[in-house]
């Protein structure tokens, strides 16, 4: 079972999803902007990735600056509440597999946690090669 917390407007997220599919797997796709992740789910994802809350906060193209989230006055609990209220603050894509949970930035990090090998060559949307014709990481 593979789950991706996905934003279809994000090239990195689209590339990650395509790499998962290139391994022959159709993942469960969680469109977290439409169905926000709960606080408990966020805590579990971060625990499974061994990262702190700030390690999953997205700054670019979000209300991060407007909410003054760089301010050290905010506790982890506060930041989690902000992420629940503003799902765009969750960095993406996060992928969960039997081999682990990872924030896949860059997208090829997903290869570290996929059990199935790549079935074909793969280039990112921008043309950057990631997997060669033999299914091996470039």
What does the model show?
The protein is α+β, with helices and mostly antiparallel strands and 138 residues long. It has 2 domains: 1-32 and 92-138, Glutaredoxin (3-Layer(aba) Sandwich), CATH 3.40.30; 37-90, Glutaredoxin (3-Layer(aba) Sandwich). The protein has helices spanning 11-22, 39-49, 76-85; strands at 3-5, 28-30, 94-97, 100-103, 122-123, 129-131. It starts with a strand and ends in a 7-residue tail after the last strand.
Residue share in β-strands: 5-15%
H/E series: EHEHHEEEE
Number of strands: 6
Largest sheet: 4 strands, mixed
Any idea how many domains?
Answer: 2
CATH homologous superfamily classification of the largest domain:
Glutaredoxin
- N- and C-termini, Cα separation: 25 Å
> What does the average pLDDT come to?
97
Q: What fraction, in percent, of the residue positions are helical? A: 10-25%
CATH top level of the largest domain is Alpha Beta
Number of helices: 3
Q: Any idea what the CATH architecture of the largest domain is?
A: 3-Layer(aba) Sandwich
Our Rg estimate from Cα atoms comes to 16 Å
- Class from secondary-structure proportions: alpha+beta
Task: Outline the low-pLDDT stretches.
Answer: none
Shape assignment? elongated
Strand order of the largest sheet: 2-1-3-4
What kind of assembly state do the chains in view correspond to?
single chain
Quick structural gist:
This protein has 138 residues and is an alpha+beta fold. Helices cover 24% and strands 14% of the residues. It is built from 3 helices and 6 strands.
């Amino acid at each position: 079972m593979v789950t991706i917390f996905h934003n279809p407007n994000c090239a990195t997220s689209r590339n990650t999803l395509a790499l998962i599919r290139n391994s022959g797997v159709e993942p469960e796709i969680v469109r977290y902007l439409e169905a926000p992740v709960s606080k408990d789910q966020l805590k579990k994802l971060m625990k499974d990735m061994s990262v702190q809350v700030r390690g999953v906060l997205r700054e670019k193209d979000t209300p991060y600056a407007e909410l003054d989230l760089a301010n050290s006055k905010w506790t982890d609990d506060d930041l989690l509440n902000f992420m629940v209220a503003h799902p765009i603050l969750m960095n993406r894509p996060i992928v969960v597999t039997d081999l682990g949970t990872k924030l896949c930035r860059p997208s090829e990090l997903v290869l570290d946690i996929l059990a199935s090998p790549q079935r074909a060559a793969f280039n990112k949307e921008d043309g950057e090669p990631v997997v060669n014709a033999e299914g091996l990481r470039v």
